[in-house]
Amino acid sequence: MKKSILIVLVLIAVTSQAQVKKWTLKECVAHALENNISVKQSLLDLELTDIENLQAIGNFIPQVSMGANVSENTGLGFNPLTNNAQTTTFLSASGRVSVGYTLFDGLRNFKEVQRAKISKMAAQFRLTKMEDDISLFVANNYLQVILNKANLTVLTSQNTITKDQLKRTQELVDAGVLPEGDILEIRANDASERQAIVNAENAVQVSLISLAQLLMIKDYQNFDIEDEGYDIVDEGISKKSVYDVVESAKENRAEIKIAEQNVELAEKDVQIAKSAYYPTLQAFFGYDTRFSNSAAFIQDIDPNNPVILREIGVVEDTGQTVIGEFPNTLTRKVGADPFIDQLSQNDGISYGFSLNIPILNGFSVKSNVKRNQINLERSKNQLEQAQLDLESTVYQAYVDAKGAFKSYEAAQSALESQELAYNYAKERYDVGFTNAFEFSQSKVKFDNAQIELNRAKYDYIFKLKVLELYFGIPAMELKF
């Protein structure tokens, strides 16, 4: 008994592992947004704006630098402590710490911080647009797979009917009720349907592979989607006027937000360029010290003979020699002071302000301002063009959605008519009032009407969701 239970559990586990995961549309969209290369690139662009913002904030922090120099001189050189020339070998070192801070630069730093914030918002809007585009692209490919599967289901079910009809017709031909040509016609129809089924199966596989590649999924064989539960879900967008959709798109769409941010960026660039017209005031502070291991020569008073007499001149009138007393010194060589002591003995500080007033710079500032003003006008034109393009695109999407709905309604009516015609032809064929060719033609029209209804249905679903996206509904909140 335990062995049987174990075998059943193993079979259940193997069966569950063999089941292929079926991806929902939301799972596909979420996976694409996480793994799509274009989205990753947009995220990197967003990270770059953080670096730009960090650099702009760093301009408000004092600049601190440290430097050190160590050298050994051999031969004739200048002692860095006494500044005397001497011929010897000595080691010298110096160090410096400097601090600088910009007190005023025409408000350039403030403008650069503001520009960095605008740049980040623009990058965020570009990321949003990229995510919307990827979501729609995934949804379109997803619905294409569902359409191909629905068409395959139609063709398979209709071929089942054909096979049943083929069996009944064969019986009637064998009984002599129908001519041999009827069975040949139905066999030809069956062959055409089986060929169409093969083509439909290939279409399903190709569309699944295309979707898997879009999602960066390598396991094509085990990739499948959930094709149940997707129907026309109208959030009321079809009842709104095209003007409402256009105005909502202008307020919410990332295309307009990006163009608006580009205008603000261009305005900040003009302000930053104009800041070069103003003087720049900087404060600075420096501390430096030095060390040398060279020996020094000191003059000491001779304790045994502290004074010497030396002739200093002659009295002109009398010719008498004038004698003066001078200190009698002895030269003594002493070693260098310790390193730590010299750092405090030889240090010094400097501080003050630096003012730079631009007067003539070859029109470089003026040219830069003019260049940025032209870029500003270009950005304004691009904003206006983006608004016109969006308005045109929304109008086209609105018309496409309305047209797709009418096409869907027409396809429904056509299917109802073709179904009645098919049932009528089938009844006439079953009692021998029509031949197999006429019946096959009616069946082909019925099959085509079902396929056309599937196409019109999913085409309308996609175009309706495009319109909802333009209206401002986030891509991940679209309902199918």
Automatic annotation (TrEMBL):
GO terms (molecular function) for this protein are: efflux transmembrane transporter activity; porin activity
Gene3D superfamilies given in the database record: Outer membrane efflux proteins (OEP)
* Any Pfam family hit: OEP
Q: Which InterPro entries match?
A: OMP_efflux, TolC-like
Its keywords, alphabetically, are:
Cell outer membrane, Coiled coil, Membrane, Signal, Transmembrane, Transmembrane beta strand, Transport
Q: What is its main location?
A: membrane
Looking at the record's lineage, which domain of life comes first?
Bacteria
**One of the record's GO cellular component terms:** efflux pump complex
Transit peptide keyword on record: no
Spell out the subcellular localization from the entry: Cell outer membrane
Query: Where in the sequence is the signal peptide annotated?
Result: 1-18
As recorded in UniProt, coiled-coil segments are 249-276, 366-396
Similarity section: Belongs to the outer membrane factor (OMF) (TC 1.B.17) family.
What is the designated name of this protein? TolC family protein
Q: Which organism is it from?
A: Gelidibacter gilvus
